[in-house]
Here is the input.
Amino acid sequence: MEFLNNLKKPGIVVFTILAGIIILASCEKYSFRVETVDPVDSVHFKTVIQPLLDNKCTNCHGGSREPDLRSAYSYESLTTGGYVTLPADKSKLYTKVISSGHASFTLPEEKLRILYWISQGAKNNK
Ligand code: HEC
Here is the structure.
């Protein structure tokens, strides 16, 4: 019995750690739902979206990979490439930004800004 109990203990520790990770991960999903960005406020391309692309995307999407997200090319690249279509949550840009390979590149509020910018018509505004 003593032997069995000792065997079970590490199992419980591992279970507790896994449960903790799962709970934390689900919290992150909820924090994504928190409205940190007002959907009614216009999200402007040049002053909000482009700086985000410059900070988070152009080191990889700097000309050699589609879409080209450098400021001189990004708007053209996103629109002609069909990345910003309605409904916004189904667009190639937004679904990529929240996909497992790309999700870590942006903060939850940045993902929301991209979503709202697309849903507001993906305008090339200041
Ligand atoms: C570490 C490098 C890296 C960074 C940073 C990065 N990407 Fe990507 N991106 C890739 C690679 C590699 C692919 C192609 C493979 C794939 O689809 O995941 C890609 C593909 C894409 C695609 C799909 C292209 C297509 O034609 O299907 C989009 C849209 C995209 N990225 C947008 C972004 C945006 C927006 C950001 C910034 C928030 C970003 N990426 C940051 C490496 C990166």
